[in-house]
Amino acid sequence: MRLLFEPMACIACGLCEVACSLHRDGVLTPMSSSIILHQEDKANYFGLVLKSASEGLVLARPEGVTHGAQSSDSGGPGAKPILLREPCDLCDGAPRCVTMCPTGCISKEG
Ligand code: SF4
Ligand code: SF4
User: Fold this and answer.
1) According to a count of CB atoms within 10 Å of the terminal CB, is the N or C end of the chain lower?
2) What is the tens place of the pLDDT at every residue in 27-75?
3) What's the total number of domains in the chain?
4) Per-residue pLDDT tens over the stretch 67-101
5) In this structure, are residues 4 and 107 in contact, taking their beta carbons and an 8 Å threshold?
6) Which of 53, 75, 49 is nearest to 61 (CA)?
7) Cβ–Cβ contacts within 10 Å for residue 110, how many?
8) Rounded to an integer, what distance in angstroms lies between the CA atom of residue 18 and that of residue 46?
9) Is the C-beta atom of 15 inside 6 A of ligand 2?
10) Centroid of ligand 1 to alpha carbon of 96 (angstroms)
């Protein structure tokens, strides 16, 4: 199984980050989640960064989805850089981020 993204469906609500943190740490904070909402100063520009075990970093941006790219994203002050975080374990087969995403931006394949 792997996660698939429809970047243009993302509304930057951040629910996937907190769903992941609840799975990982049992708390509602995106400090160490395997998925990060990436936002830039540019108006209405945002995307997602997933640390995947099988595909490396997955960048889901308005331009499209790429794999294996480098990123230093941390998800905010005090948060761990994505490269130091645990990779996505697909929530042991029931991805919480997929369940929580209100727009269907994230789905599972396989
Ligand atoms: S599937 Fe689970 S571990 Fe992977 S990013 Fe989503 S919530 Fe996090
Ligand atoms: S939960 Fe869905 S819509 Fe919200 S930030 Fe994550 S991917 Fe985007």
Assistant:
1) C
2) 888 788 999 998 877 778 889 999 999 888 999 999 999 987 666 677 7
3) 1
4) 876 666 777 666 788 888 999 999 999 999 999 99
5) yes
6) 49
7) 6
8) 17
9) yes
10) 6
- Three-state DSSP state, 54: coil
Report the helix count and the strand count for the chain, using DSSP H and E. Answer: 2, 6
**pTM of the complete model:** 0.90
Asked if residue 30 has its Cβ within 6 Å of ligand 1, the reply is no
Residue pointed to by tokens 């960064």: 49
Instruction: Give dist(CA 59, CA 47) in Å, integer.
Output: 7
CA distance 59 to 77: 20
- Residue 84's domain comprises 2-109
Is 19 close to ligand 1, i.e. is its CB under 6 Å away? yes
